[in-house]
Amino acid sequence: NAGTEADVSISVYGERGDTGSRQLLRSQKSKKFLKGQTDIFAVEAVHLGCLYKIVIGHNGLGSGNGWFLDKVVIKDPVTDLDYTFLCHRWLDQGQDDGKITRELPVTDASTFPGRQELELKREKTWAAEKWKFQKGMTLQFYNRLTHGFVCLYPDGRVDALGDKKNKYGKVFSMWMHA
């Protein structure tokens, strides 16, 4: 009874976004999600870059809907990389911890090219910038569109009216790249 007849869905997350929830409909096998069986599905999506996690689960419908999931392997056709997400747990309201959805991180960090370098850059950036976010600090951003300032005050107030002359002398630029 390790297989399921419930509807199974997956969301795949990468450095460039996610797929959203996708139901796994057509396996290369005639009957999907049987005990001991490997099912193969094609999921169309924009290229997500390096993958880092999935969320997989089922809707809990049908008799004997509990499911024991060993692992998920995603093959990226663009980079030819395989991403492995180990589970080796039940997705069953009556087994294990009762969850029918699991969030699984990528198993091997080496499949994420540059992951260590990216984490090091993030840590260095935060170390250099965290002083701006200390208690009691007023943050001020210059809005190029309105040519005014937006202030975030320590008490939680936000002044977004765009005062062109602000009593705080420094202007900090914050760039967001998507």
From TrEMBL:
PROSITE patterns (alphabetical): PLAT
Domain PLAT: 1-105
Coiled coil: none
CDD domains tied to this protein: PLAT_repeat (cd01756)
Signal peptide: none
One Pfam family recorded for the sequence: PLAT
Domain of life: Eukaryota
Matching PANTHER family: OXYGEN-REGULATED PROTEIN 1, PROTEIN CBG12474
Annotated protein name in UniProt: LOXH1 protein
Lineage per the UniProt record: Eukaryota, Metazoa, Chordata, Craniata, Vertebrata
Gene name of the record: Loxhd1_3
